[in-house]
Amino acid sequence: MTDDHAATHEAEEDARNAELLIWVDGRLTPRAEAKVSVYDSGFMLGDGVWEGMRLYDGRWAFLDDHMDRLFEAAKAIDLDIGRDRGAVIAALEETREANGMTTDAHARLMVTRGVKRLPFQHPRLSVQGPTMVIIMEHSKPRIPRPIRLATVPHLRGLPMTQDPKLNSHSKLNCILACIAAEKAGADEALMLDVHGFVNTTNACNFFIVRKGEVWTSTGDYCMNGITRAKVIEVCRANGIPVFERNFSLVDTYGADEAFLTGTFGAQTPVGEIDGRVIGTGQLGPVTERIRGLYKALVAA
Ligand SMILES: Cc1ncc(COP(=O)(O)O)c(C=O)c1O
Questions:
Q1: Is 232 in the pocket of ligand 1 (CB under 6 A)?
Q2: Of the candidates 28, 80, 83, 231, which lies 20 to 30 Å from 180 by C-alpha distance?
Q3: What fold is seen in the domain 15-138?
Q4: From atom 5 of ligand 1, which residue's Cα is the shortest distance away?
Q5: What is the pTM for the complete model shown?
């Protein structure tokens, strides 16, 4: 990793993370010993769903939205989490308390179809009930400069293949997109939809700003990001024109600003796309304003 390396999920080094306790199926286990079976459906097949959540000042931001999305995704893949919302939140809190975290923490809560009887795909072979794991880290985003994106051939596709709204364990499509972007000299991938309109990135939602208007994709082909929804909400509440619409790379290269959204980084400026500098190449005034409004919403 060079100093110039930037990615949307880089965090400051924190020595406390070496000694974390990881929640694995109800037991808090030191990080070095935390394990799942090699027969686990998640390890073997990417068969599971997950949520990324952030702790700000003692509270999990938009916890209800994350729980709604988790249970909706589990239902969609016919996975019984085996616990109700209260029990999932209790596990989250148990992990937080065990690790002495009060703010600036990030949780990855994962639920898979569990341990399989045989090393094959059929979901009926997952016989032991779900596996649930919570990794929680001390985490402060560290993004040394605006992100560079490259457009890649990989799409987040139609809902009848792997619905792009699912936060599935298997991220291979997005990983391939990210690899292609890195090979092209960028940090992350800008992914189009099946019609060629600008859609999303491999790990975040995508917005542009043109003449004071904020544009993002229709939402049909991207992750139903909670940060994306909150950005739209704060724009609407504060008189910033915001549109979910189709737009192309021409509109994107010519934008005044571009930024990414995700729970981890909130709003991350994009400086360059396919070698074209976007606006000044730096954090723009509209993005900065939205950042402030989002921060206030989290605090509220
Ligand atoms: C592909 C993709 N897009 C966008 C997001 C951002 O979603 P959120 O704002 O809910 O963190 C994620 C996060 O998991 C993601 O994996």
A1: no
A2: 231
A3: D-amino Acid Aminotransferase; Chain A, domain 1 (3.30.470)
A4: 204
A5: 0.94
